[in-house]
Amino acid sequence: MSWVRDGDGLVGWGCAARLDTSGTERFVEADAWWQDWAEQVEVHDEVGLPGTGPVAFTSMAFAEEPGRSVLVVPEVLVGQRDGVRWVTTVGEPAAARPPEPVAHPGMVRYSDGQLSATGYRQAVADAVRRMREVGDLDKIVLAHDLLACTSDPLDGRFLLNNLAARYPSCWTFSVDGLVGATPELLLERTGQLVRSRVLAGTIWPREGRGADELAAELLASGKDRSEHDYAASSLATCLSPFCTELTVPEEPSVLRLRNVMHLASDVSGVLSGSQATLLRMTDAVHPTAAVGGTPTPQAVKLIHELEGMDRDRYAGPVGWVDARGNGEFGVALRCAQIQSAPEDREGRVRLFAGCGIVADSDPDLEVAEAEAKLLPMREALEGIA
Ligand SMILES: C=C(O[C@H]1C=CC=C(C(=O)O)[C@@H]1O)C(=O)O
């Protein structure tokens, strides 16, 4: 299990406690379980920072149905934050074995997942037609998947090392086989402060175009600005009832990554005295219009109809919570679900990528954008340095 950004973060192993849950009440159940569990343990914490003491790595399903959500409390946790390092153990962990060396997964073969690129193009075209003809939807985020098989066993650490090296500003995560490097922070809580990095609106490298030129084009694109505004306002609307102050930038900035650039809004707030926990607040803001759409209920319903696939935990909240209520949740993007067991002779993994669609989206460009968003995971699998 891990959650690492720029070398800081948490890495855990072993399982001291675990909850599997699903359905509409998954966040409520997860929250109650974690609070109960944390109340019953005796904690000796000499460090007192966010992420010290017991921590539950968390990965929630995107949708109410189907989907499974999981919380895992590792037996051993190693943390680092601003030059401070710590180790947390829960109970009497089994004697540590020296870690196995990380092996290359060999050759990679790709095949269609539950929704092929052609099916995805059609789903986007259908959504655009519906937006233009019916007019009950302003934005929808549609995704598709891709299967990859590796000729040798697949070790999640191989992917994590590559992602963390190539995308240091992203949050590189691994929870129960869901591995990725997300640039999008759904919600971070540190004491009474909350923070979010909303992303929506994307441009990707094109022949003969410099980075500054691309960034300027993205900022000037009305289509991307409207995609972004829906996402930022969905987050702000759902978060503001919990806050006495909430600051949303008037204009987005550009986040530059090696595969894509995004319009970004860094939102920050101060919580009111309410007892809302991070998991309850996450329940309130998920799914933002960066992964759902506007209005949310119509968009989520149409996602199910048009994609016809199970997103599982892709685009759901992923991260960690500690026993004091601090924690970080990213949006599980640029990720893959490892389906093979570590002892399997071949690896099997399901990759995901999606795009925000508005009435003037072009289905061919959305297919190309999803390709660009699949690159980090494909290159990590192929071991491209
Ligand atoms: C849904 C994804 O990206 C979201 C986050 C950033 C930009 C997005 C966009 O421009 O469409 C998406 O809203 C994904 O990477 O699968």
Query: Considering DSSP H and I runs of 4 or more, what fraction of the residues is helical?
Result: 25-40%
Count of DSSP-assigned helices: 8
Span between termini: 23 Å
CATH topology descriptor of the domain at 106-169 and 185-382? Anthranilate synthase
- Reported CATH architecture of the domain at 106-169 and 185-382: 4-Layer Sandwich
- Supply the helix-strand structural class: alpha+beta
Radius of gyration, whole Å:
20 Å
SSE succession:
EEEHEEEEEHEHEEEEHHEEEHEHEEEEH
| Strands, total number | 21
Please provide a written account of the structure.
This protein has 385 residues and is of the alpha+beta class. It has a domain at 106-169 and 185-382: Anthranilate synthase, CATH 3.60.120.10. Helices cover 29% and strands 34% of the residues. It has helices spanning 26-40, 117-133, 156-166, 211-220, 222-239, 278-285, 296-307, 363-382; strands spanning 2-5, 8-13, 17-21, 55-59, 69-73, 76-81, 84-89, 108-112, 139-150, 171-175, 178-182, 185-190, 193-203, 243-247, 253-256, 261-271, 293-294, 317-322, 327-331, 335-338, 347-357. The strands form two sheets. Strands 1, 2, 6, 7, 8, 9, 10, 11, 17, 20 and 21 form an eleven-stranded antiparallel sheet that branches. A hairpin with a 2-residue loop joins strand 6 and strand 7. Helix 3 crosses helix 8. The longest helix has 20 residues, at 363-382. The radius of gyration is 20 Å and the shape is globular. Bound molecules: ligand ISC.
